[in-house]
Amino acid sequence: MENETKIKFTNARAKKMLVWLVAASISMFFAAFTSAYIVLQADHFWVQDELPQMFTLSTVLLVISSLTIFLAKRSIDGGNVGGLKRWLVATLILGLGFTATQYLGWSELQSEGKFFLGNLGNMKGEYGVDYTILMKGEPVLYDQGNFYKPGDISYSEPINKRIEDTFNVSASFLYILSGLHVFHLVGGLIWLLVLMAQTFSGKLTQKNVLPIELGSIYWHFLDILWVYLFLFLLFIR
User: Which of 44-53, 58-67, 204-213, 214-223 has the lowest mean pLDDT?
Assistant: First the structure.
């Protein structure tokens, strides 16, 4: 019995370590992208604008989902299978809501002429109000429908053609960072479905809580990762 307990403890620790290694790898992956974001922002045409409003709602939904999966874990620890079922369903709904609001956020970007593969000339709205274009960190000047380099206060050399033909890197990065996060979240949603199947079939009990422990670690990590990305895009953008 003692050897069996040790084996279970060792297996559980190894699986938790594996989840943390996955989380660390994903963190390094996103750290590389956010570093590239900062470098390109300082040395390229860059759009300074507001994040889609739906991204704020996404953040609220995901933060709440961390609470619901915590309550699910606490329910099974106390032997409350009914509570486990309710909170897992709530977490799944919130996760799906997060994914849906991300999609609506991308639709909002497209309505503003900001595409994954698009140029600065595609953007809609009033310059200086809805968006501003930076050139190596300085705002591009605008007068009577023409763009000018920062410092060209005499408005002598319009750069409209250059602006219109320049790839909108800032929009692409927004799609990449949020899209990759959704991609990893899908893994969490699949795991939630597995947990729900185990719960409703009676396999997930007070004596077998490891699956939900692993799932909650990954889910909380995705929550923290998104909050970091949201704040990064909000203040660095």
Answer: 204-213
From the list 160, 59, 47, 67, the residue with the least C-alpha distance to 105 is: 59
Q: pLDDT by residue (tens digit) across 4-21?
A: 666 767 888 899 999 999
Distance CA 64, CA 62 (A): 5
| Helix/strand/coil (H/E/C) assignment for every residue in 63-84 | HHHHHHHHHHHHHHHCCCHHHH
CA distances from 58 to 29, 125, 194 (A): 22, 24, 23
Structure confidence at residue 93 as a pLDDT band (50, 70, 90): very high
Residue of 33, 65, 25 lying closest to 184 (CA atoms): 25
Statement: the pTM of the whole predicted model exceeds 0.90: yes
In whole angstroms, give the CA distance from residue 93 to residue 32: 31
